[in-house]
Structures are given as C-alpha cells and as structure tokens.
Amino acid sequence: MIERLQVSHLRNLEQVDMQAAQCNVIIGVNGSGKTSLLESVFLLSRGKSFRHHQPKRYIQHHKQATTVHARLADGSTAAIQKQTDATTILRLNQSTVYNQSILTEQLPTLLIDPSSMDMLEQGSASRRQLLDWLVFHMKPGFHSQWVAYQRLLKQRNSLLKQASTLTSAQLNELKAWDKGFANHAALIHHYRESVFRAWQPYFEASIKQLLPNYAEQLSLTYNAGYDTSIALDAQLHERLSQDLQLGYTRIGSHRADIHVHWRSNSFNKIDQLQNTADNETSANSISDVPVDKVSKLPVIKEQAANVLSRGEKKLLITALRLSQLPLLLNDTDQVMSLDNVFKSSMRDDVIKKVNTTTQRQATPVVLLDDITAELDDKALDILLATLSTLPCQVFITSLTEDVLPLITKYWSNPNVFHMKQGQLTIG
Fold first, then answer.
1. For 322-330, what is the mean pLDDT?
2. For the whole model, what pTM was predicted?
C-alpha cells in the first residue's frame, strides 16, 4: 500500500506530494489532473501509461522527464523516471533495478476507468492482458516464459518478413526457434489455464451480484490461441507458407483470448417459439407451444457483447475486473470476508478448491477513474462494498462530492482531496 506519493512533471502535475490512506478520493473538474494522478500510480506499477505509450505525450511540456516516487507501507520505496526519449530509470529502495516486473510485483494495480468499458468490442489484446495480469501475480514462473516467448516471436516475425521463401539455413534456424517457441507456449498455456479455472467461480459469483438475471446465461471461456492438443511447432510448420506470405505468425500464445458468451435459456426458447406461433397460428399463450418443439430448438450461443445493452456491458466488465481481486488476495490465513459477497454465491466444494489455488501476493491498488459516469448507483454500491472488505488500497476520482456519502458508508475516514489545475489540496 502507498503511504506517500510524489509526482513531478506529469501532464499538468508540476509537483504533487500526497499522503495516502487506504481509501483516497480525488475531486475536481475535467482537466484538473485527477486522472493524471491515477496515471502516475499506474506508470510506477506498469512502466507505461494507460492513456498513451509515448512518454513525450505525458511528460510536461518543456521538461525532459517525469518522476513518480512512492513510499510503501512496509517501509520500502519505489520510483520510476521516464524521459522524453523513452529512457527509463527504475529504483527499488534507492537501488537501480533493470526489470519493470520487480516494481509490478511490489505494487500491483487494477484500473477501472471509462476507456476500459469497451474491451468486449476491442481486439483480443486488452482481454488477454486482463488474464495475464492475474497470471503474472499468481504464477511466478509465468513472466520469464512470456518474455522468452515474446523474444522468439519477434525474431520469427522478423525472419518471415525478409522474403517469401527461406534458405536451408534459415529453415533450420526457424525450426530450432519453433521448438523453443512451442515449449514456452505450452508453459504459458499451462499457467493461464490453471489461473483461468480458479478465476471462473469468482466471475460467476460476481455476475450473480451485478447481473443476476443473466447468471445462468453468461459464461467465461479461454482460447489458448492455437490447438493445444497438437505441438505448436508442428502446427507452425504446416502453416509456414501462409505465414511467409503474410509476414507474421498467425497462431500461438500471443493470439490467446478470453470471451464472455451468452447462451439462451428455456424462457428465451419459449419466447422465440411463441413469437413464431403468434405469427403462424395466432396462439394466445405459451401453453399453446408444443413442449417437444421447445426441447428441439437449438441453444443460441454468441458473444455477450452482441446481446447486452451498453449499461449491461459496463456491469459485465466490472464483474470481470472485480472478480480478480478476491482470487489474487486469497490465502488460508486471510479469507477477506468473502462470505459477505462472493462465497455466499459459491458451492462449498468450489470454495475449498479456490482457497488452495494460490497464496496472497502484494496488496493491490485499485484505481477507479470517474466511475460514477459508467455505473449506476446499485452497481457502484456493490463495487465499493466488495472493495471495502478486501485488503486493497483504493484511489477514486469524481467530478463532484456527490459520491462521498456512498464512499463513507464503507470507509469511515477516507482521505478526500481536491484537484484544481494540477494542484492537490486535502479536505
């Protein structure tokens, strides 16, 4: 947990020095710097901004670098400096480190913001990152495999772009790469699948809280990005000519995805038949529809994004993110009051299984940016109620103080700040 946050030269934040609590509320008008403050925490944790990847776009005008420094509750310190040429300096306890994952492990962040509410319609990258964030913090061996895989993928794609045909030497080189590529992919898939299975019951429980009417119709699925029943290098060999034509690798762990599917239930089937019956036979009631026709009607399965309304999609994405926190924090010593929210929706055998899945990692920081613009009062109340039972730190931004009564319902003494033109004041 962050105790003190110092930010310099990030967008309109000239110099900010913030004493943080478990719950922190930042209030200000649009453009005041609220989101930039959350961006600084995200930058420290992830090494990149969630708004723009080029440092020169978020470093203050006429400045050469932006710096974010945090003192954590355990007494350790973490810092990052990003320069306009993308040079990065990382420090942990005043010592320079050379891998962003070290800071990520110390300060896991979970962002819920308006821009993330479109992930169902976007490409697979944002959904894959959602799963990988969880795998990274739960499976220590995942990151090294992912880094090695990405290195080979870059080399492979570079070779594929060189020519439409390869020499014997290049083919032998590619064959050796593909063997290692397949080994890394198999381990990545193993980690992802293990975590995904542990995540599912939490997602289902979260759906029951946020979208109870669709609890039986929504399901979360994982796609590895390739046929895991066949060695990846063998599949790559079969597809080599097509990959050469396109100049990139079409299958593998880098194409993995998670989907939320919507399935029709018996009531949907009856409604569909009833509509047909009304048109064809002027039937006046559902009882006029033959039962045997209902059972023979195929189950409809498609992407949930194609069925749900805009508001329902927001609740679904919130359920995806919210359901990750209890799993990340779960251990046998601290049950995190899940009985109040999640465990009441789970079977006893499922609870026992997820309790032994992982061990608790560092306390996460949850960043809620202008969340009142995306969620209704009921959904926001469920979100805050759940977060208040978990050992996590929360930063919330809001345009007005209207959100404070709901926040103080769950945190008796939150730190409240006001942001105006990049200047942060408390109270």
1. 83
2. 0.80
